[in-house]
Amino acid sequence: MRVKDVKKVVLAYSGGLDTSVILKWLQTTYQCEVVTFTADLGQGEELGPAREKALLLGIKPENIFIDDLRETFVKDFVFPMFRANTVYEGQYLLGTSIARPLIAQRQIEIAEQVGADAVSHGATGKGNDQVRFEIGYYSLKPDVKIIAPWREWDLTSRTRLIEFAEQNQIPIAKDKRGEAPFSVDANMLHSSSEGKILEEPWDAPDEIVWQRTISPMDAPDVATEITIDFKNGDAVGINGEALSPATLLTRLNELGKANGIGRLDLVENRFVGMKSRGCYETPGGTILLQAHRAIESITLDREAAHLKDSVMPRYAEVIYNGFWFSPERRMLQALIDASQASVEGTVRLKLYKGNVIVTGRKSPHSLYSMKHVTFDEDQGAYDQFDAQGFIKLNALRLRLGAMAGRKGGTL
Amino acid sequence: MRVKDVKKVVLAYSGGLDTSVILKWLQTTYQCEVVTFTADLGQGEELGPAREKALLLGIKPENIFIDDLRETFVKDFVFPMFRANTVYEGQYLLGTSIARPLIAQRQIEIAEQVGADAVSHGATGKGNDQVRFEIGYYSLKPDVKIIAPWREWDLTSRTRLIEFAEQNQIPIAKDKRGEAPFSVDANMLHSSSEGKILEEPWDAPDEIVWQRTISPMDAPDVATEITIDFKNGDAVGINGEALSPATLLTRLNELGKANGIGRLDLVENRFVGMKSRGCYETPGGTILLQAHRAIESITLDREAAHLKDSVMPRYAEVIYNGFWFSPERRMLQALIDASQASVEGTVRLKLYKGNVIVTGRKSPHSLYSMKHVTFDEDQGAYDQFDAQGFIKLNALRLRLGAMAGRKGGTL
Amino acid sequence: MRVKDVKKVVLAYSGGLDTSVILKWLQTTYQCEVVTFTADLGQGEELGPAREKALLLGIKPENIFIDDLRETFVKDFVFPMFRANTVYEGQYLLGTSIARPLIAQRQIEIAEQVGADAVSHGATGKGNDQVRFEIGYYSLKPDVKIIAPWREWDLTSRTRLIEFAEQNQIPIAKDKRGEAPFSVDANMLHSSSEGKILEEPWDAPDEIVWQRTISPMDAPDVATEITIDFKNGDAVGINGEALSPATLLTRLNELGKANGIGRLDLVENRFVGMKSRGCYETPGGTILLQAHRAIESITLDREAAHLKDSVMPRYAEVIYNGFWFSPERRMLQALIDASQASVEGTVRLKLYKGNVIVTGRKSPHSLYSMKHVTFDEDQGAYDQFDAQGFIKLNALRLRLGAMAGRKGGTL
Amino acid sequence: MRVKDVKKVVLAYSGGLDTSVILKWLQTTYQCEVVTFTADLGQGEELGPAREKALLLGIKPENIFIDDLRETFVKDFVFPMFRANTVYEGQYLLGTSIARPLIAQRQIEIAEQVGADAVSHGATGKGNDQVRFEIGYYSLKPDVKIIAPWREWDLTSRTRLIEFAEQNQIPIAKDKRGEAPFSVDANMLHSSSEGKILEEPWDAPDEIVWQRTISPMDAPDVATEITIDFKNGDAVGINGEALSPATLLTRLNELGKANGIGRLDLVENRFVGMKSRGCYETPGGTILLQAHRAIESITLDREAAHLKDSVMPRYAEVIYNGFWFSPERRMLQALIDASQASVEGTVRLKLYKGNVIVTGRKSPHSLYSMKHVTFDEDQGAYDQFDAQGFIKLNALRLRLGAMAGRKGGTL
């Protein structure tokens, strides 16, 4: 690895041991000025210590950036994604994937502001996050230099890392000396755990893995009933109370946590080519997905809904692979957003021991027509006889095929 | 409605009041010979009474067909559909849709056998089932005459129907005199309820609606752990015991029922153009879907899996709309089936109060490589440095775009 | 066919014999007031006679609407469609399909204006146009009554039609007495011919069929070179001269015609279920399609282009089937339009005896980077070594598959 | 670049200067045994000299492999691809892309046979071909070592390359001393030219670029009429004469060449992320594509055809990017091949100065029903009245939308 010529680098800094080592390693290796950026995405840790630690490691106060991005995160990243009912590989709610582009975006903004020529992050060379960060960086600042320490350095074992920390007077919390039993990423949308004790996909995850939700087994024996209000495809209130995006998601997280909702134990396919096993907790997001589908069920036209469904896997892949800041994501978003103007109304749900049960949906823009669907006399709203012509012409090509010897749709 | 010239008609006959009225009405209106066909698809009703009733209504013994199609149903219809992880509109497991083509197929076989020129069914003119039956008929026998009494006759109210029954000495069970509070369809895969008291989508369904599963609330407080074995993409055993398709699905239904699994309350879009609300119970199918996804997660290549995901919504639509016997279904099936040869192995699951929780998966054909994914030293299985080139070339088009003024993937 | 209760009907009226007969038949059969609407879509016929004939048939002057819709047609229908490089079934440029929604839209506007409760058109019951008209009507005015005389009346042979005309004093041009050898539809985008002498798909079309282009055989022996300028994805000028949409398309039609460009002899699949054979002439559109693809080739991002390509067949089907005024068309249009902001620049073409040959393209927003692609020394613009990591990670899943016994991507 | 430990390498060897230099460089740099493999894919060069040159450069006779792969190439690669009417980015017939996997496959077979641990090719680090070769290698032999000299060595200018050749007694043809004005790749399906004088996309290609076709301007003034016979979706004869795949394509190439057919000047998007400009000549393939579409137009069901169209862009991308030996290509192929059983019959075409004009198609399995489509009396084959119900139910969702305030399909 040839060392790049770097003057000033903006580091995505959590304040933890690993990124503190990276901070020091950047100073040492590149002899460059380091700017730290710490984002509050609702990961549930205080950010004060990050500032102190940065100062302690010699970062100038004007080079320390700590931002509360929670509302932006939910409003401009999480909500647009949920408009598409997005799941990766049928199940994963993309909690990590959707946070990376926001961090990259802010890092590049800071780089432009402080005149930095480089950025750096703490993601390893095996995972998806390096791709998501770096695709974001390049797309927003094509001439940026990128330093990915885990792909470059020789601190490849825990022992060496601790050694480097000790040699460089980096404080080490007691519980960080040993190997963590698994690796965690968290933000307001989800927590993910992977690696180490989770690497064998036949072994059930230990209960210790789940940190964001109680077990369905421990959840209350009575259901919690709530309503969620939507407007323009986004959730805007709970139980009739209007809430900001981040406040709303926080509330849903609490409700989900208390009712054992949103756990997922999954083997997924990484963009870099291997399979990995992750345990995800997305309490509020799991509720939100069901509720959004329910409000769409009465407000979206059939073909609009099916068209969304047909592009969703591609949209999920685009986000998972790290291409949020890409033409294809913007084009797909245009299609999705164009469908949401009338996705408005209220959904009633029961939350119970891991279950999210839709029990009602209503909307001022409902397309559900009881007059048409009713089993009772419909006063001519629908002429049943029309179905004959509908069926006969839908069947015509198949009849012609069968007459030509291709019965049953054989080819 | 001009009355067709019909000599002999094969009627899909359940033995219930409605199809008994149809039977009589066909005899009266078309002055034709009626052949009855009653299928056991695992709907949970005895078929003996259907024979007796047909005899009572004057059907000759040789014109009464009663077939046990349960194994065929699961093996040739349900399982192929589950290979695709098929859900309609994100949620519905297509329990009714998948049964119709089999009934149509057998009806046409009987028509060919007895020399009938017509077929008839008891589906109404508002629903999807008429389409599914008739598309099937036409595709298999393009010159067949189709009689859809509900679109033709004037027995459009319950009162008139009962009157007609009484005038024609059709026995009426006591509980069938009044209006049913909702309409039910059932087979081995699912039960569906719709209409009447379920027509208001804001009202939660009464507990009486659910007949196939106990409530999650009433399910046991301890989880039931099972394993399911797969081969060629199909489930072949439970807890290590090899089972035939229908036996296996029956077993899963019992497990699902006992654990409150597989309820769905949905507003969906019908092919005929309106929205309708249905309450579905698919206990075994719900478990099967999760298990199939889990075994695929370690045995399917990423792009194979994503390709399946991308065509699934279309495949679901094809089945929902009634085009099982069509070239497009056969082509999609060829794609799907081509992917399943190595989908083999075992999935461990916990069933608990409505939850299906995957806790392990293993396979002799696993593509999961612990050697590559591990957080530990991987002995060079994976060269982290490769990621740099991978990212740089994936980002190149975005960098070129950004250099041309289109930062962040703007267009 | 039960006759509807109609007070005032707006008829799409060409002034020809068939729609004149319809006009009279509507008056006679429905005893209703008839409003005629004649559109100039560049079909190349004078509209004056249509007014005179309508007056002659007793239509009040205030009930005669004649509109020049040529600029609207090209700007709001043709151009949006060409942004997607739309072709139906790989070849057909949708010249008829794209005109129908505009006619339907204007007809409904007139109906609202004059307080008509019904609309009527002259399309037959076998074709696509009835669907396109009526879907448009229903989508824009859901309670409108639709009269489709060809599906209702008994004037089903030429003889009867002529008889009716004679009985009702409808003037009959000499050359209209006999059967036309084929049926023609025309507008500014194309002419189509079908039916009668064209019904045998093994027979080559007679030269008489082609009315809009000279034969490539008769075209000049020297090529004509032109340039076309684009902005926001639409053509805006020829040879450096800015032109309005309709003027530009007229000019391209002249150029195409003179060079034998744009003939197509096709068997296509109708929405109503049968195959039909059509001979189409789209001289200007054929040039425009090639030019648009060429300007996109240097200005569109790869994934943007591929995403457009992947939804195009669906978009073409939506338009062909008559769903211009639908949510799915609007959503797809949003995706397509979102891609066109930088589709700007100039394309140079040679037109020669049926050939459209692109010979150059340039753009102020070009994404083509000679610096990167050059075979010469590129001063480090592109690091060839990056390709190794790119390939290795793209191949990783296949290598893991091969190691698990699935060589060559077998499944 | 760290030099790998290689014992025996199979080199894709053309016999030209570049791969001769590679041969020598491999011997020198890796001190390994070199096995040469030269394939006849119909590129139009004699292979005898390749053998002589290899001997001259010290390759042992048993290490020289020269194979005529022409029939395999057309039968197992070109024809399967044409079944899908495959074009990349709307235009490119993939002539280079489709040849690479066959070369890779044979190279790996030889490697297994001779016990080689490595393979090598002469593609540069900027292009798609390196990806196609190497993806193929890895997919077929996951532990193979790959040597890509152009990404590794320092012979990065023509001068250095010539120097190396001279120092190593590699014979240099007189016309190879200077820089070629552009780079050429050829096989039986096509010739491609790119680079150097073609790098400016605004400049028209010099006539010297076109080597495989005469100019439309120079082609005969009279059309050539031919017929092509198809069976199972593949061309099997010309003018009634049965021909083997390679013979047939050769014949079509001659016909195309003589009539100026198959030139394409294109800017395309490479998988490695940049745009490039290529001039392609695919004379026979261009004819074949039109003919295949024409035979499908009367033999394929509508939805089968549309489904093929909808997956084609993905299939083209898979091949272009080099993933022939992948699960996704095999799955797509299964879908495509499933559609071709009845694609049988004869197409008549006129070839004239760059034009391929379909003038007739017929088939024993035709789905074209003159009885249904005719403008004449159809004796009840088609009941026009059916169209009313068809349209009304297709419009129902849009009417319900309009009634809910969303006129014209607004959302």
UniProtKB/TrEMBL annotation, chains A, B, C, D:
<keyword id="KW-0547">Nucleotide-binding</keyword>
<feature type="binding site">
    <location>
        <position position="122"/>
    </location>
    <ligand>
        <name>ATP</name>
    </ligand>
</feature>
<keyword id="KW-0963">Cytoplasm</keyword>
<feature type="binding site">
    <location>
        <position position="97"/>
    </location>
    <ligand>
        <name>L-citrulline</name>
    </ligand>
</feature>
<dbReference type="GO" id="GO:0004055">
    <property type="term" value="F:argininosuccinate synthase activity"/>
</dbReference>
<comment type="subunit">
    <text>Homotetramer.</text>
</comment>
<comment type="similarity">
    <text>Belongs to the argininosuccinate synthase family. Type 1 subfamily.</text>
</comment>
<feature type="binding site">
    <location>
        <position position="39"/>
    </location>
    <ligand>
        <name>ATP</name>
    </ligand>
</feature>
<feature type="binding site">
    <location>
        <position position="280"/>
    </location>
    <ligand>
        <name>L-citrulline</name>
    </ligand>
</feature>
<dbReference type="Pfam" id="PF20979">
    <property type="entry name" value="Arginosuc_syn_C"/>
</dbReference>
<dbReference type="InterPro" id="IPR014729">
    <property type="entry name" value="Rossmann-like_a/b/a_fold"/>
</dbReference>
<feature type="domain" description="Arginosuccinate synthase C-terminal">
    <location>
        <begin position="182"/>
        <end position="399"/>
    </location>
</feature>
<feature type="binding site">
    <location>
        <position position="128"/>
    </location>
    <ligand>
        <name>L-citrulline</name>
    </ligand>
</feature>
<feature type="binding site">
    <location>
        <begin position="12"/>
        <end position="20"/>
    </location>
    <ligand>
        <name>ATP</name>
    </ligand>
</feature>
<feature type="binding site">
    <location>
        <position position="124"/>
    </location>
    <ligand>
        <name>L-aspartate</name>
    </ligand>
</feature>
<feature type="domain" description="Arginosuccinate synthase-like N-terminal">
    <location>
        <begin position="8"/>
        <end position="171"/>
    </location>
</feature>
<dbReference type="Pfam" id="PF00764">
    <property type="entry name" value="Arginosuc_synth"/>
</dbReference>
<dbReference type="InterPro" id="IPR018223">
    <property type="entry name" value="Arginosuc_synth_CS"/>
</dbReference>
<feature type="binding site">
    <location>
        <position position="192"/>
    </location>
    <ligand>
        <name>L-citrulline</name>
    </ligand>
</feature>
<dbReference type="InterPro" id="IPR048267">
    <property type="entry name" value="Arginosuc_syn_N"/>
</dbReference>
<feature type="binding site">
    <location>
        <position position="129"/>
    </location>
    <ligand>
        <name>L-aspartate</name>
    </ligand>
</feature>
<feature type="binding site">
    <location>
        <position position="128"/>
    </location>
    <ligand>
        <name>L-aspartate</name>
    </ligand>
</feature>
<dbReference type="InterPro" id="IPR048268">
    <property type="entry name" value="Arginosuc_syn_C"/>
</dbReference>
<dbReference type="InterPro" id="IPR001518">
    <property type="entry name" value="Arginosuc_synth"/>
</dbReference>
<protein>
    <recommendedName>
        <fullName>Argininosuccinate synthase</fullName>
        <ecNumber>6.3.4.5</ecNumber>
    </recommendedName>
</protein>
<keyword id="KW-0028">Amino-acid biosynthesis</keyword>
<feature type="binding site">
    <location>
        <position position="183"/>
    </location>
    <ligand>
        <name>L-citrulline</name>
    </ligand>
</feature>
<feature type="binding site">
    <location>
        <position position="132"/>
    </location>
    <ligand>
        <name>L-citrulline</name>
    </ligand>
</feature>
<keyword id="KW-0436">Ligase</keyword>
<dbReference type="InterPro" id="IPR023434">
    <property type="entry name" value="Arginosuc_synth_type_1_subfam"/>
</dbReference>
<keyword id="KW-0055">Arginine biosynthesis</keyword>
<feature type="binding site">
    <location>
        <position position="92"/>
    </location>
    <ligand>
        <name>L-citrulline</name>
    </ligand>
</feature>
<comment type="pathway">
    <text>Amino-acid biosynthesis; L-arginine biosynthesis; L-arginine from L-ornithine and carbamoyl phosphate: step 2/3.</text>
</comment>
<feature type="binding site">
    <location>
        <position position="268"/>
    </location>
    <ligand>
        <name>L-citrulline</name>
    </ligand>
</feature>
<keyword id="KW-0067">ATP-binding</keyword>
<dbReference type="InterPro" id="IPR024074">
    <property type="entry name" value="AS_cat/multimer_dom_body"/>
</dbReference>
